[in-house]
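Can you make up a protein sequence with its backbone structure tokens?

===
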Amino acid sequence: MEGRSIGASRVIISQVMGPTEANVHGNVHGGVIMKLVDEAGAVAALRHCRSRLVTVSIDSLSFLHPVRIGNLLTLHAEVTHAGRTSVETEVRVEAENMLSGQVTQVASAYVVYVALDEGGRPAPVPPLLAETDEDRRRMEQARLRREARLAAARARGEL
């Protein structure tokens, strides 16, 4: 199976946040942001795998600042690790005040997906190719996160 670069998986998704995504105080619900994180991560994973996927986990989703009605929410996603049948994506979320132009990072997360074959069983994914030293550094960090996830799952008796 031919490998693919991190750059081949990159995706940017933007959406203006309206009243239907927010609470009575004008703050966008965390669940709305979480759904968009999963969607952006899935698009990046799909670009890499070109197969059906399911979400396995969302690691360390951190909300750093509130998102307000009228903000342009932009999600940057890319694959950071490819295992045998799974991929990890990193998703960074920014909110832009459309009047002032101020952009603030509001959330980030790592999302893991498993590729599926036609029968719904885990399927092999292409290897991830590093093109730069920064790619190699980020792939090593992702490998360490994967090891930590697997160790935690073993400790919980899930593996």
